[in-house]
Each structure stands twice: as structure tokens, then as C-alpha cells.
Amino acid sequence: MPDASETLVRAARAVVDGAERPASVRLRDGQVVDVGAIDADADGAEVVVLADDEVLLPGLVDTHVHVNEPGRTDWEGFASATRAAAAGGVTTIVDMPLNSVPPTTTVAALEAKRRVAADQAWVDVGFWGGAVPGNVGDLAPLHEAGVYGFKCFLLDSGVEEFPHLAPGELADAMAEVARIGSMMLVHAEDADEVGECAHGRAYAGFLGSRPDAAEERAIGLVLDTARRTGARAHVVHLSASGAVPALHAARAEGVDVSVETCPHYLHFDAATIADGATELKCCPPIRGAANRDALWQALADGDIDLVVTDHSPSTADLKHRDSGDFAEAWGGIASLQLGLPVVWTGARERGVPLAEVVRWMATAPARRVGLAGKGEIAVGADADLCVFAPDEEWVVDPAALHHKNPVTPYAGRTLTGTVRATWLRGRPVDVSGPPGGRLLRRGEPR
Ligand SMILES: [Zn+2]
């Protein structure tokens, strides 16, 4: 319901137009209607003044979230995922087509997902479709039904109902994606370069089975296929920094490709992963410190476009923490509520301004995916805001997170930066109150 009254948010520090400055942001009917000087006349609006240690950010946009509902609701679900998002300053998520059952590979599956999400979204939710063998004919109808693009795998996805594409199938699907004007997201690891993971508690056994070459070779295929078909392509969760030069070169010659990395690749170092620490298993794997530094450099250079969580939770038992066997454990890291503090903690240590982090985690994902009105504080944008205290330190207690399963590799870590409030379309989100999020469709008028 539109709020007829106006609110004026005064912030000594606000991230506007890619930089930090004092501002007052006027909100009406769920949108930003003015961004003015901090002492702008209230003109009858309700005034909210941020504390001295707070910065006003646009609500974050996390375009890589596995909600897993319907079908694997014990892993996560729309209610828990969107509450976690709100608590983490995220006002828009885009849900991945797997590991729900059914996966989002048909319009019927998309509609089933929308039905369960409809009354339990505390933030806005968009959807990706899935490209699997045999469903090229479903891509155009899914596009028309409002998905923002399609996700595919080039090797075993980890769930049998979402099989991967062979190179020829990738080419066919990307040709169709080009024809309909959509985008193909690719999990880029090459099956031939990935070995059998050794059983046991040693992280090295897992890491060794998924070398940098697997990503580099698969990304080579994605770039070749994008070049031949003209499709827009996006490489999800880049871990291997060795693939950056090929991506850079392809872009320089005009291939329409973007790339994301994730908080865990920017935070952890393979050399310090303890035996049996299966909460850190994800695919592609977390690599060493030099690789991590190279990812930070690639972000700074603009060679990596965005940072999203790849929030991919499971139940605790599937992580096999008891045995600590990396071969048995589910590969996926839960971090939806923690993305901003994790990335900001690393950025701050490296002297990277908060406005840069906002670009990677809000503005760039919204623009690349085509989420109109999201990812920035600007006149006409949705009044989606995050009140962030960037200097406040805290220790992660998994039981205090809204994630359905209290399993996260950040347990006990000290992070810098807390989310004090999240606003969705002009109102503070209350995760104990009724849900106020909307289901978003590509091309829908705002
Ligand atoms: Zn994922």
C-alpha cells in the first residue's frame, strides 16, 4: 500500500552517485523523490536523522541466492531467506533455479515457486530460470513470464534434477538466449579438469580435485560460445583469478560478458582451512591467499563486476561436520545475512572505500541484471535503504542469524560493520511483522 506521507532521511554520510557525501533523501509512495543537501527544508515530512556513526546506503542487491523452496525447504525457504536478507541490508534477491524441486526450468515450475513465495517475502524477490538438456523450447516462455535470465552448469550440479549442458547444448541454449535478448549465467568448471575428491578430512584433497584449470578452461568455452552466438553471458562465482586475463581480453574485443565473485573467496585462505572444516566446502573451491589478493585487485581494476553471496545452505547433517569428510559434504556456503560485513571488513583493511563496496553489491548487480529502480539512491528509484554502522565490530553467532540452518563458516569471526536498519520501498522492514516484499518480473512496469 503506498504511503501518502513523506519521510526525509538526513545522513551526514550517504552513498549517492558512487561516492559518499552528506545528504537528505526524501521518500514518498515508496520511491526517492529528492536527494538534497543535508539541511534541506523538511516541508512537513517526517524526519529521520541517522546517528553519527551510521552511513545511508542503497539496499543491497544479491542476485545469487538459493532459496531451495519448494522441495528442499528444510535447507532454507522464502521466509527465512528474505528475513536474513533484510537483516543483512539486502532488499532484493534473485533466486537461483536449483536446488528447489522442481527446478525453475519450465513456466509451471516458476509459477509454483511464485505461489509459495508470494506471502512470505520480506524483501523483493526476482527469479532466474534454468537451462538444462532438452529445455531450449522453455527459455522463451520463461523469459516472457519474467525471469531475468538463465543459469546452466557445465558439469554435475550436485542435484540430479538439474543436469548440466554439453558444449553443443550450451551453444544451442546461448543462441536462443541471444535471440530472445536474455542472459546466460554459467557455473564455469570443466568436467574433464575436475577429479574425484579424495575421502578424508584434509581440505587439500578437495581443493586438488578442482584446480584453477577447470575454471579457466570452462570460461574459455563460455567466451567462445558468447562470441559465436552473440549472447550476453555472466560467469557466476569466479574463484580462480587466473581466468581474469581471458575475461578482460574478451571484453576488450566486445564480448558481452560479466563476472561475479563471492564474499568467501575474498575472505578465506585455503592454507588456513582446518581439517574437517566442511562448512567451507563450495564449488569452485576457496583457493590460496595470493589468489584471494588477485581477486581483490581484479575488483579494483573493474575486471570483476560484482560481489554476490551464492548463498547455498543445506541442513547441518549434509555438511557431515561429524566425520569432516570433504568428499561426502554438501558444497555450498550460507552467507546471505553476512555478505556486506564480510566484504566491508576486507575492503576496509585494504583501504577500499565503502562506496566501492556498494557499487559491487548493489549498483552493479542491479544494472547488469536489469532490476529497474534498484541498487542506488537516486530520484525515481525505489526507496530501498540500508543503515550501516561501518566501524562497529561484532562476532558472528550462527544461532542469531535468520538463516534456517545455523551453519556458517563465519561462526565466531569478528567482522566490522553492522546493519542497523533496512528500508523497503520507504518503510523500515520489520522481520517480526507482516511481509512487505514483492515478487519482481522482468519488464514489469514499476
Ligand atoms: Zn550458486
Describe this structure as you would to a colleague.
The protein contains 11 helices and 17 strands. By secondary structure, it is an alpha/beta fold. It has a 6-stranded parallel beta sheet with strand order 9-10-11-12-13-14. A 4-stranded mixed beta sheet has the order 3-2-1-4, covered by helices on one side. The protein binds zinc ion. Zinc ion (ZN) binds at residues 64, 66, 96, 310, 312.
Strand-helix topology:
Elements: E1 6-16, E2 19-28, E3 31-36, E4 46-49, E5 55-58, E6 60-65, H1 78-87, E7 90-95, H2 107-117, E8 124-127, E9 129-130, H3 136-144, E10 150-153, H4 167-180, E11 183-187, H5 203-209, H6 212-229, E12 232-235, H7 244-252, E13 257-261, H8 263-267, H9 289-301, E14 306-307, H10 339-349, H11 354-369, E15 385-395, E16 414-424, E17 427-428
The structure holds zinc ion.
Largest sheet: 6 strands, parallel
Mean pLDDT: 96
Q: Structural class, from secondary structure content?
A: alpha/beta
What is the N-to-C order of secondary-structure elements (H for helix, E for strand)? EEEEEEHEHEEHEHEHHEHEHHEHHEEE
Unreliable stretches covering 5 or more consecutive residues: none
Strand order of the largest sheet: 9-10-11-12-13-14
Give the distance, in angstroms, between the N- and C-terminal Cα atoms.
14 Å
Q: What gross morphology would you assign?
A: globular
Give the proportion of residues in helices: 25-40%
Rounded to an integer, what's the Rg over CA atoms? 21 Å
Strands, count: 17
Strand content: 15-25%
Bound molecules: zinc ion
